[in-house]
Write a structure and sequence with these properties.
28% of the residues lie in helices and 25% in strands. The termini are far apart.
Amino acid sequence: MLHNKAFVKKTKSGKITKNVREHYLRDDIYCGVPICRVCDASAARLSGSASSPILVLDTNVVLNQIDLLENSAIDDVVVLSIVLQEVRNRNLAVYNRIRALCSNSARKFFVFSNEHHKDTFVQDMAGESKNDRNDRAIRVAAQWYRSHLGGAAQVLLITNDRDNKRKATEEGIPAETIEAYVKSLDRQDLLDLLVRPASEDVEMEEVEDLRPSKRKVLYAEHKPLSEITSGLHRGIYHQGKLRVNRYNPFEAYVGSESIGDEIIIYGRGNMNRAFDGDIVAVELLPQDQWHEENSLSLADEEDEEEGVHLVPGSADDAPRTTNLVQGASGPPPSRPSGQVVGIIKRNWHSYCGSLEPMPMPAGAGGVAHALFVSKDKRIPKIRIQTRQLGNLLNKRIVVTVDSWDRLSRYPSGHYVRTIGEIGDRDTESEVVLIENDIDARPFSSQVLACLPPLPWTVSSEDLANPIRQDLRNLRVFSVDPPGCKDIDDALHCTPLSNGNFEVGVHIADVTNFVHPSTPLDDEAAQRGTSVYLVERRIDMLPKPLTEDICSLRADVERLAFSVVWEMTPEAEIISTRYTKSIIKSCAALSYIEAQARMDDSRLADPLTTDLRNMNTLAKIMRHRRIERGALTLASAEVKFQIDTETHDPLDIGMYQIREANQMVEEFMLAANVSVAEKILKHYPLCSLLRRHPTPTKEMLEPLLRTAASVGLELDISSSKALADSLDRAVGEDPYFNKLIRILATRCMTQAVYFCSGDLTLPEYQHYGLAAPLYTHFTSPIRRYADVIVHRLLAASLGIYKLPAIFQDRPQLTSIADNLNYRHRNAQMAGRASVELHTLIYFRKRPTDTEARIVKIRSNGFIVFVPKFGIEGPVYLTERSEKGGGEWSVDEQQQKIKKMDGSISYGVLQKVNIHMEVVEPQPNRPKLQLTLV
């Protein structure tokens, strides 16, 4: 059946055109109920039992109650196509979660295409809003299910919209609020999952107002989006992402492109209910209220109670700080300070933590009101209601934020689920994954069905394939971290008769097994990257691929994608070729083993000779890259020795970089550059590249200030100038130069993936590598970006046709955005895992050690501990001090001095500290650093 939908549209030239869209209606769309006598039962997903009703949900229930819907107690659910579409338009994250429920064979969620069924499609009515039309369509679908099943099963419309529920009742459709339905299940735990959004027109039974009757206005009202948009255009407001200081939750920054600097947001009142990661609109405060960064104190946990929740502009809107007196050089120039006037995009998600300890209320079992304390100090406490307080007090739990009223000191949220016992290592490791949105679920049966059967070997068809070159005769080897099983890359270096070298980088041919638009490919695209924690690895691809079929292990034949150069002894590239290949690695070496071979003068076997030749070439390439302006930066990478039985850390120290590491890195960089040039030449508009934006002068200001305070002058006019300056930054302390490089690393922008068609050629530059073009090709086992690049390279060589998605620029941009998000989350999860295992290690090992001061603040400083790669705050003022605790900060010299002149501390100075795990607040252990 054909239905024509007509509408008029005004063109740019002012003409009115009439458009007619054809909308096909069918009568063969099944209801999904097995007891139905009309529909095909093989398509059934629901149970349709007489004891439990079939639920038809409206849009707001799906949007707001997704945590409840994911609980296995909620089943036999019809999700209408009109609801799915509206959810997709309003919240993509919730849409993905409801789609996952509908595709999960273990759950009874059925998608019914009501917009294409001839009996449930509703035409537009004059004067009817889109929202009212959608509500009517939902009621029509619910009524159709009732008549279609003829009383064989109950049908219940679930809506919290008072008007929709009234109309359904008048039309003879059984309808209930979500809370009433949950109460009918007699499951007290499910009631904790209910969301009570402040803005929804909702009938909630027995909602108890938690707040006092005489409530003060604590926060300014958020400006409407129309006013924000106007203010942004006129330069009154400034837009950016709010980042809360990890050491002081009352201090935040908003990077603003409109003023070219970071705006300091000081105090919860000025943050105005914004969370870390929110996109906000900020209004600058009068200049006499601007703060210098170093005048903002470090805060500790108890400051949460210091009455910071006040309307912005209040004189009391700050946590307590020590008295600050500027040094003789006079007050430093202030930095822009502001207040949040509106939220453009919320970053609320699930948070992990525990409930504040409290006595069990009398008559336990009823509704208790509790405060949830996130493990992340940047997140404010969250008020929840729970009926299972006794079971939750000693547990790590997940809580989601629902709303934050301007009259309420805390945001309101609801309990989602329990993770496990507080302090249990497995529980705390899962917290790391949840906080960083890492998907650690087992791969689905649909994904695993995409894998080739095991055991897998190179076939005769592979050997005969004309696209694939047989390179098994080459002496190929890999060099990786100890115990590495997911070996992406291997190398070879063969001397040629003309005195040159043939050098090859061979990368696992993952795309031979991961085909576009399959469940395996979709899963890898969503995960984006493998995640490396201290004690485990969370794979992007299933283990049969990562550790066997694709891994370039020793003494087995494997499929590869190879980049092969002819190089002179001076490491000049004469020619480059790209080919799919078959290799057989002769050795899988660790960095330590490769280094030992190169250093042992007694060894002269062919493999060791290859290593030495490659290392010689790599040193020349590295020197040339640095001469070109590439930065040699440093990071505080930590290495743990883990007990194989208990998985507890036995030892901790800085990760050691050897020449062997640098050798492999050099050839991987060269392969990535070569491939970037190749794919961009063929696909200038849809290549996936990686760029590192040039840091602004404002970003490098902290580094310049620190360097100047110790008599160093850094030239930041170019990456070459900065690299040369860093080379000259030496002192008596052998660790001094590395510390300066670590500080420089922290001033850099993040390197990001992008689609070549989205930017101009000058913007492609990779600042840190001093390379005009760069991409990722060398790790497709653990990075989805490399999978995309392999497909581009194969298409540029005429091996395969370029998948259709490369013609969809917005989709490519979306993929790049997800890759950047996943890459950053993986980094953050890795760091959080290090912090967790650092706590476990020092819990029974109080230690005295040496540290370096890296940042001066008004009541202390932040130190870096070289031996362990740890950073943290040292407080100079005890909370109990009422006087005599004043310190003065000399901004020019980057020093903090006791007022009587008896003690002075400067940036980069050595100090001796005591490290010990303490628990100043229950369930929030921390590594406390104190001066010895």
